[in-house]
Design a protein that fits this description.
By secondary structure, this protein is of the alpha+beta class. It contains five helices and twelve strands. The chain folds into two domains: about 130 residues, Impact, N-terminal domain (Ribosomal Protein S5, domain 2, 2-Layer Sandwich); about 70 residues, Alpha-Beta Plaits, CATH 3.30.70. The protein has a five-stranded antiparallel sheet with strand order 2-3-6-4-5, sandwiched between helices. Strands 9-10-8-11-12 form a five-stranded antiparallel sheet, covered by helices on one side. Helix 2 runs parallel beside helix 3. The two termini are about 25 Å apart. The model has no long low-confidence stretch (mean pLDDT about 90).
Length: about 210
Amino acid sequence: MPHPQSYQIPLAAAEAEIDVKKSRFIASLLPIQSEAEAKAFVETQRARFPGANHHCWAFVAAEPQALTGLGSSDDGEPSGTAGRPMLAVLTGAAVGQVCVVVTRFFGGTKLGTGGLVRAYSQAVRAVLAETELEQREPQARYRLTYAYGLTGTVEALCNRFDVTVLDQVFAEQVQLELALPLQRCEPFEMDAREWLHAEAELVRLDDAAQPLA
């Protein structure tokens, strides 16, 4: 299996417009973290430009190398001329957690299938050029369950590896959901085994939920 690569995420919404043979292509970009957020953004753009001929879209909900969380639509354009080329630009640029909607106002001149592919691809590249992007490293996620008496040790372990705490539940035991860059996983797991002495359960959530300690 190929090792996950670093990727980029947008930090804010952006927009760009291109004209191709009198057709207007307005590319609107939004940072997203789920398919539901992407679909909601598409509907927002439909309402914003009700007179447009097409609202073609593509989204990458997580990492661009992921096999799930991707989607696209030609929205009435000839099959394969809009959504898939838009998605190819996003994944080719290694951009994740993003949705782009390209709204087209037809200018009276047909572009042909090749022209449409070029126009929609160009529109996505144009909005990416206007977007502030931040580099991200692939993250591993864990669930750590432990007794309250281990709190000090767990805090020291998390501080040592600069772990991000995504969620925490305090019940009979403490349960944390953690994230850290993949390159830190092996030493983190080794230290967790050594420091926690099998008194806690560490489960890798993004790797078939296998207990590690």
